[in-house]
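Researcher: Please predict.
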Amino acid sequence: MKLWGGRFTKETDQMVYEFQSSINFDKRFYAQDISGSIAHVTMLAKQHILTDEERDKIIDGLTGIKEDIDSGKLVIGQAQEDIHSFVESHLIDRVGDVGKKLHTGRSRNDQVALDMKLYTREQVGEVDSLLKELLTSLLHIMEENTETYMPGFTHLQKAQPVTLAHHFGAYFEMFKRDRSRMADIKKRMNTCPLGSGALAGTTYPLDREYTASLLGFDGPTLNSMDSVSDRDYLIEFLSALSTIMMHLSRFCEEIIIWNSNEYRFVEIDDAYSTGSSIMPQKKNPDIAELLRGKTGRVYGALMSLLTTMKGLPLAYNKDMQEDKEMAFDAMDTVKGCLILFNGMVSTMRFNKPVMAASAQNGFTNATDAADYLVNHSVPFRDAHGIIGQLVLLCIEKNISLDELPLEEYKKISPVFEQDIYEAISLKTCVEKRLTIGAPGKAAMDSIITIYKNYLTQE
């Protein structure tokens, strides 16, 4: 059944029909379409546009359709061009002519705008839940590793010693911001377009506030033209999903590096690794690499929708049907990636001695050695030069600052005493950094408490 056709004297060309048909992908929000229709007829009866008997008949029919689709008894096929036609045609088959009154006071334009909003809002909630699960896993790792020393990096060069808890805390902050974006999107998008009609509202005395409340919205949209042509919320969501993937990709890049033979900081669990068809010794971080690779796929969905929307005049245009396929793919991709990444990071094993040795042998305590001199009244710029000479000497001798004999220290500066070794130990270097956000254990413990409260309150 078509929802249109009286104006036409010829059948649509089959190739045209297939080209513009959307049921292959918009069938995924049949539940949203049905819930929107139930709310709509409930409001129509309240406004005495339908009788209570007509309302109940239509709702019974819609409920039966949903139950049959859920159970697999009713299969969504290709006979209708979209999910709206499919539901309405089956409703009429089941309840008769009263089903034809379902579409009173609305258009497919506000119907599809509603369905997409309802579906996207649900997806925002699902992504938020997965982010919370990942944050819970990261927090558990942080709690266990406040004294697991490792090098911090800038430019992929060893810089200063930190802890694994501190390093993972950086990603906790990233994913926490991602959750805040989910909340922002939901708040901004939570207005109901139903009742906007094709673009100019309707002459029926609809109660749009009532419909909005039935569907869990904060209220109705305030401009009917914008209501049917707005996809800002979806662009925002795809942008937020792209940022999530960027964060996952950065994390995966580090895990791939840490998992290499040269680093050996971590070992990825067998369940999240694969082998080589020719090299029997290989254990490849394929899941991390695929997660990193799928980032471009999600970026593509965002760029596709931005490009689609950039030249559209008001109000609705068929171009906007292109908001769905790639958006659906991006949503599915991000949810799958969050689940897999959480599993991978939760089962990784950390090689703590190797991490500590890497920090110690990478001169990450050089800044603290300079601070030692500053605390003994040596100007920082002079201290910087002295430590630079010591690092060069250690490189020539292939030893660390911790292994350099005191007499070598004194040859370059008589200020050095035996306590230099305590001052540049990894433990001292990390533990004396106690400002908010620093890696010292006391500072990290307070941050972990904040994170625990954050996850508890959400």
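Model: The radius of gyration is 31 Å.
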